[in-house]
Amino acid sequence: MNLHEYQAKQLFAEYGIPVQDGLVAHTAEEAVKNAKALGGDAWLVKAQVHAGGRGKAGGVKFTKDLADVEKITRNLIGSQLITKQSAPDGQPVNCVLIAAAADIAKELYLGAVVDRGSRQITFMGSLAGGMDIEEVAANTPEKIVTFSIEPGLGIQEHQCREMGFALGLEASQRAELQKILKGLYLLFNEKDLSLVEINPLAILEDDSLCAIDAKITIDDNALYRQEVAAWRDASQEDEKERKAAEFELNYVTLDGNIACMVNGAGLAMATMDIIKLSGANPANFLDVGGGTTAARVAEAFKIIVSDSNVEAILVNIFGGIVRCDLIAEGIISAVKDVGVKVPVIVRLEGTKVNEGKEMLAQSGLAIISAENLADAAEKAVSAVGGKK
What we know:
This protein is α+β, with helices and mostly antiparallel strands. The chain has helices spanning about 5-15, 30-40, 65-75, 135-140, 155-165, 170-190, 240-245, 265-275, 295-305, 325-340, 355-360, 375-385; strands at about 20-25, 45, 60-65, 80, 90, 95-100, 105-115, 120-125, 145-150, 195-205, 210, 215-220, 250-255, 260, 285, 310-320, 345-350, 365-370.
């Protein structure tokens, strides 16, 4: 689960991490009121969306005029902000953060992730703050310094000092960075984060440090024990993906025209690959899981047919944990109940496969049976006219 910047900064403040003064606004009038309350003679109007690259997309504006604060906010709220990290049609802007402008002398980068290799929380720092960290990692990896934290020991002071030296900080700034790193580590653990980023972490003109931006991602599996789960903004999520999560379906929307329903992530990836190889594009990634039931298959069909781009559905199920005849029963029931009007191509393999195929053949429905994955892909592509 992603948090908005203003939500992330609220957590930062609770853990002693310095942030800009800022107030969230849902209307242009509220934005002006907030700017006046913050005081000063310059402000930032920052669109609150779950996507990076807001500045380059026009989602972050600097102004010294209260009238501009109102105008910028009015233009942003209700719009779709398209960034290089957003959905193709953008993310809805429902509110903005009005932040007091800061006098920045230098921009740094600071972040932390769960490193699967070391199975530890790993901190990353860089002198290349304000830039896309992915580009820095790809082009100048030597500009990124890292350290991993042994869970039994926790974050060590020498690690904080080494990061401070690597970022070229003075003694007082290194002491401040140590507090920030310890606060971030505590936040990471207590709130079950999977990622936290400060880009930029600014050195201000008075030599103090300040988190100018904030990004937090919380592990979905831990939301049941986190109060911040109530902060979830469903408007920022793909409706189909959100609906799928309610039924424990792993779904990702893509831009093709052949929908996939598969059990197992690896098999789902292979299915998408062979569709592409056969001359078309997958409309989604959908893993219904190992313990597939007829009810979940029906919900999967409902989600699939809600996508107007779908012109055919390829069902690729391996009956290991679940029997093929039960899957066939679920497919038949779902096609009838949902009213699927596009071709459905089904490839079954595994336990009770013959019984499953016989059930599909005798269903009286326009379900196309396939012998293997290559045959299924060819029939699905043929069903949509071989469109790319």
